[in-house]
Amino acid sequence: MSVFTPVSESQLAGWLKTYSVGAPTMLEPIAAGIENTNYFVTTSQGRYVLTLFERLPAAELPFYLELMVHLARHGIPCPAPIAGLDDRYLSSLNGKPAALVTRLEGKPVDNPSAADCAELGGLLARMHLAARSYGGFLENPRGPRWWRRAAAEVRPFLDAPRAALLDGELQFQSQQRFPDLPRGAVHADLFRDNAIFRAGRVSGVFDFYFAGTDCYVYDLAVCVNDWCLADPERDRRLDAPRTQALLGAYAAARPLQAAEREAWPAMLRAAALRFWLSRLHDLHLPRSGELVKVHDPEHFREILALRAAQDAQAPLA
């Protein structure tokens, strides 16, 4: 569990006086996440999630919150930010920027079936279609510029084979140019633990705090690299039925262009590189905090190596 900024019941009660959501009756730390402090909050009026932003620049926060407002207004099952009495979605708690959003009901799926993957793929396409009318812009904060900076910081901790893999992939990605791919606001972190299901349907997607403006097919690759593995614990190759189900449902709602299909192998590699780097960074350059959860970088090192070895395969059909 990741808790960086403790919040007491009395502190919460004082803070909630700036909202019209009733008095708090429960405060519970959320046992997930490595970037922000999150709590479940129950009040006399409803159930919410409180997020304290630990290191996201304050100037970027309106992009995330307004994107969630936009998607929720378009029928996407995502948390809806709650405005305070000052009609703002962002405020301050214990010296940190903080936001209150609605709490969604459902449970994550640890081992998704092909049907689950299809459900997720269809929802992702609808998210991308809805995001086309979102006017906010924020360059993907974990895009190529961040890759290069993070690589320089973690390289001293790598052995020769891992350093060679990292340098080779950065070189490969630097040669990729896809200026004409459809792009807009993307989630960029829609792993299995960032979606919940009820009765076989996606009932919520959350944790938009890595969102940014990027290629839609990159967002699709992020999902496939997590949802469609043969075995997340032992076999990081892509499972064909899951992959076909997710991609098929996505394309049924938003058909992929020829350029997106051509870019697919490179996007799978880019998505793997991004998360290998972030996990390396969290492992070797951690922040001070309470009960900080760090994911194993080797998971995405293996995914990257597999995707790079298969790069000569035919583009996405």
Provide structural commentary.
By secondary structure, the protein is of the alpha+beta class. 41% of the residues lie in helices and 17% in strands. It has nine helices and eleven strands. Strands 1-2-3-5-4 form a five-stranded antiparallel beta sheet, covered by helices on one side. Helix 4 packs antiparallel against helix 5, helix 6 crosses helix 8 and helix 8 runs antiparallel to helix 9.
Give the key terms:
317 residues; alpha+beta; Phosphorylase Kinase, domain 1; Aminoglycoside 3'-phosphotransferase, Chain: A, domain 2; 2 domains; 5-stranded antiparallel sheet; two-stranded antiparallel ribbon; 9 helices; 41% helix; globular
Please give a quick description of this structure:
The chain has 317 residues and is α+β, with helices and mostly antiparallel strands. Helices cover 41% and strands 17% of the residues. It has two domains: 9-102, Phosphorylase Kinase, domain 1; 114-309, Aminoglycoside 3'-phosphotransferase, Chain: A, domain 2, CATH 3.90.1200.
